[in-house]
Amino acid sequence: MKETNRSIELWCTEPDEQQLMQYKLFEWFVEGVLFLVIGIFGIVGNLLSIMILSAPQLRRFTFNRLLVALSVFDVAFLVSTVPVHTFQVFQVHTQIHALLFSRFLYPMSSISLSASIFMTVSLSVERYRAVCQPSTYRSACISESQCKRVLKYLIPVIILSCLLNLPKFLETSVEYDAEKEQIQYNVTELRKNPTYVWYTTVLYSVHPLVTTELGPIVMLIFLNIFIFSTIRSSKLRFTGVPRRSGGGHGELNLASVIFSIVVIFVICHLPRMVLAVLAVVNVNTAVECIQAFNKYHPPLIFMYAESVSQFLLVLNSSVNFLIYCVVATRFRVFMRRIVMCESTEVTSNPPFGVVRLAEAPLALTQPALQIPDQLNLITSVRSRLNSMVENGDDIGPTYTEEVLHQEETKL
């Protein structure tokens, strides 16, 4: 009983004025200054990523189009989340913000976050199919249009993200006082209902805990383990085969890009997952606070953790551009050419970096230069690969590259 009373006192009692002032200062710096700086950088970086990945030589590849979709969702998350936090912290009061808050910004923040998470998983699934199931992937590339392949990932992501976050449209309301030029943020009566609070908090064990945290993290880890294992076994298989310098660079480069995205994702989402677990564990205490006092206050340490968690989500949506710049070789080439206007030589051959592994088997059917030697090379490679597919053999990207090298030496 004493432990229960202590827990209720901890959750139901407002922090004292000094503690609250310290937290407000922390909130001003994290959810105000850092949100604004990182958010602006993230929006600019994602827009640059969209522009570069939409270049004619890059947008031919399904993987790059999925990266564009990820950048779009990240931009939507930053555009909706940064005003939700920074406007309150900096006490920006406008009628437009009041109109947009409860019907667009607040729900869109959750919808776009879910979409970004699901798209990250979709990217790993696409890479897993290309590396670990090359025959099936190659057949799909030949039989399906690129738009169809992209929509098979994109449509479920959008629908699921919207359905999971429909309650967000009902949780808040905003009033604008024209005389005082101030905004009053209110929690709807539904959100104060103890039964609603109990059910929605318990459902945290499903969403977001399983749907957008634990489930995606586990899937990303295992998918990338399989991807790296397949690449490693393929390299060992052809250790003794002569090859040109730089062979296999594309596979390792793309694997490094995916690995970097996954590592940043896991680090930035772990605090949110822990907070979701704690919310479910303490649901009864929160309900008792609402029943007794018509409100509840989480412990101050949770408020600090929530601010840090939100900042890490903003950071996660802002750093992919840096990952591409540091890790992805081909992305840097196109960035110098498009953004910095450098006259770097860029061919139409199957690209390295973020796209080298994307559709390597299919790329062989699209010769860039109409010259006899290259046409003979493509014909020879296609003949060998097709015969292997008919025999039921798996043709990974590494093996495709080795066949290409062997046929080149014959010409």
Please describe what this structure looks like.
The protein has a two-stranded antiparallel ribbon. The protein has 411 residues and is an all-alpha fold. It has one domain: Rhopdopsin 7-helix transmembrane proteins (Up-down Bundle). Helix 4 crosses helix 5 and helix 10 runs antiparallel to helix 13.
Sheet with most strands: strand arrangement: 1-2
Distance between the termini: 85 Å
Radius of gyration: 26 Å
Structural shape? globular
Low-confidence stretches: 241-248, 344-371, 389-411
CATH classification class: Mainly Alpha
At the fold tier of CATH, the topology name is Rhopdopsin 7-helix transmembrane proteins
| Largest sheet data | 2 strands, antiparallel
Number of strands: 2
Proportion of residues in helical segments: over 70%
Q: Based on helices, strands and strand pairing, what is the structural class?
A: mainly alpha
The topology string of helices and strands comes to HHHHHHEEHHHHHHHHHHH
